[in-house]
Amino acid sequence: MSEPDCGLRERKKRETRMAIHRAALDLVEEAGFDAVTTDQIAARAGVSPRTLFNYFPTKESAVLGATPADLDEMRALLDARPASEPILQSIRAIVEARLSPTTYDPQLRAQRRRVILSEPSLGPALVGNNIRAENVLTELVADRLGLDPRESVRPRVTVASALAAVRACIEHQHSGGSGTVEEAVDEAFLLLEHGFA
């Protein structure tokens, strides 16, 4: 397959994935999580139930928009960073890529937040998704630092601090905080790099 074909194929996959995610959010916001079926999500997104499950293994993951592809993307983004780069700068680059205007939709994130806050049954899936992301990043960071994550707490604390900082920046925006989310992330990572004193 040629490079342009590859790019077109990936774009179509992203569009399909996003259509399923948006359909799931819309339906859950309209009717409630328990009342929505995967068949309804697939129909709203204009795909077959089988296609839905090719992208999202569960109804919960479709609502959260979380797929194994997210973890693969994080791996690829970190692998692309220079090995000599300070690890917080590498993590910050991953965050910036995921918050870029081409991937970050404030309205979609606000809708996802509304749905999650109104549907307590999504809590376990959200926590599980966050733990999986944190574990993958911890392994990657440990490898980059040449540390065994079972012997050193540094990789996990680095990742947990960075992810908590990003969540705080996004919540700052949703709560009416000043500036952009990118500016908040810049400030947060400066605090992580230089301390809070």
Automatic annotation (TrEMBL):
- Pfam families reported for this sequence: TetR_C_14, TetR_N
Q: Where is the signal peptide?
A: none
The segment(s) forming the HTH tetR-type domain are 14-74
MF GO annotations: DNA-binding transcription factor activity; transcription cis-regulatory region binding
| Positions of transmembrane segments | none
Q: Which residues bind DNA?
A: 37-56
InterPro entries assigned = DNA-bd_HTH_TetR-type_CS, Homeodomain-like_sf, HTH-type_TetR-like_transc_reg, HTH_TetR, MftR_C
Record bears the keyword Nucleus: no
The protein's matches in PROSITE patterns, at most eight in alphabetical order, are given as:
HTH_TETR_1, HTH_TETR_2
- Record keywords: DNA-binding, Transcription, Transcription regulation
PANTHER family according to UniProt: HTH-TYPE TRANSCRIPTIONAL REGULATOR RUTR (PTHR30055), MYCOFACTOCIN BIOSYNTHESIS TRANSCRIPTIONAL REGULATOR MFTR-RELATED (PTHR30055:SF238)
Provide the protein name.
Regulatory protein TetR
**Whose protein is this, by species?**
Intrasporangium calvum (strain ATCC 23552 / DSM 43043 / JCM 3097 / NBRC 12989 / NCIMB 10167 / NRRL B-3866 / 7 KIP)
